[in-house]
Amino acid sequence: MPFKPVEHPKCPKCSKSVYAAEEMLAAGQKWHKTCFKCGLCHKSLDSTNATEHGGELYCKQCYGRKFGPKGYGFGQGAGTLSMDTGAHLGNTETQMSNKPTDPNYG
Ligand SMILES: [Zn+2]
Ligand SMILES: [Zn+2]
Asked: Which CDD domains match (predicted)?
């Protein structure tokens, strides 16, 4: 078993180590108290009113304004990554079809 130095979790906001004395928890990540602010109105947050979106924290008011009210239909839940190729519109991707095969690859 390799020796592993103690690693402090990195604050998603400023990418610096977060120590226990200053950590705030949101979205399964640890943030500095000083970084635990709404990205829009810069109001200080706590774990009860902070909402994380794309590595940024928002208060509930700003989140609602920016991303719409909950229960709107789209974009609910975490990790919904939409890759719309437009295939349903009749678009077809043909860029891959003329790629030469390299016998030395692999
Ligand atoms: Zn930070
Ligand atoms: Zn706000």
From this structure: LIM1_MLP84B_like
The pTM score is 0.56
Separation of 12 CA from ligand 2 center, angstroms? 18
Q: Give the angle subtended at the CA of 49 by the CAs of 33 and 36, to the nearest 5°.
A: 20
Task: Identify the nearest ligand to the CA of 43 by its number.
Answer: 2
Distance 9 CA to ligand 2 centre (A): 25
Could you report the per-residue pLDDT of 34-72, keeping only the tens digit for each?
Answer: 999 999 999 999 888 899 998 899 999 999 999 886 544
Dig out the tokens for 5 from the structure.
Answer: 């130095």
CA of 90 relative to ligand 2 center, distance in Å: 41
